Amino acid sequence: MPGNGIAGTDRPDPPGRAPDDALLAVRAREGDEEAFETLVHRHGPLLLSLATRMLGDRAEAEDAVQDAFVSAWRRLPEYRGDAAFRTWMYRIVTNRCLNVLRARRPSAPLDAVAEPPAPEHEGSPARTAESHAAMRDLAVALTGLSPEQRACWVLRELHDLSYEEIAEAVGISRQAVRGRIFRARRQLTESMGAWR
């Protein structure tokens, strides 16, 4: 992990162009801490968003993402580039989140689903209150999904991953992904019926 004293390589990047993930992953596998730090900065915010949406708790999400990056650093020799680095990290973070969700008691609340703040000039107080109420209801409805359904739904609907990317991230077949998303959508539609 960066900060552990492993010397980095000193290959310059082409001028005006940031290195792609595959090159950075190769460099990191060779011990280049700066390359790994670039990957962390590049993918950290999106992975934190994923973990927050899956877990509903920012502190738990931060821990899950940090653990995932520590694990990735240690497991870099295993990473061969068969999948995109982003997909590999989605899988590690998703698995961490699923482990946290499975360890929770079934009645554990999911307090909030991250939502972008609305610009102040666009929403009336009534509309803002309604939006917050809908988000709370969605957060509650998400707790009714199995951890696997929640992972697939969040990756598809909130992170716009393809079925193939979700299958890779969650470690299941495309058909299983389709089934879990279908069941999640049906259950969420029923739970959110008052908002139609």
Topology of helices and strands:
Layout lengths: L20 H9 L3 H23 L2 H18 L9 H19 L21 H19 L3 H12 L4 H8 L3 H18 L5
Q: What is the mean pLDDT?
A: 79
**Poorly predicted parts:** 2-14, 107-116
Shape: globular
Q: Alpha-carbon distance between the termini? A: 48 Å
What is the string of helix and strand elements? HHHHHHHH
Work out the helix count: 8
Major beta sheet summary: none
Question: Which terms would index this structure?
Answer:
196 residues; mainly alpha
Protein architecture, described:
- It is built from 8 helices and no strands.
- The protein is mainly alpha-helical and 196 residues long.
- Helix 2 crosses helix 4 and helix 7 packs across helix 8.
- It is globular.
- It starts with 20 loop residues before the first helix and ends in a 5-residue tail after the last helix.
- The N terminus is likely disordered.
What's this, in brief?
The protein has 196 residues and is an all-alpha fold. It has eight helices and no strands.
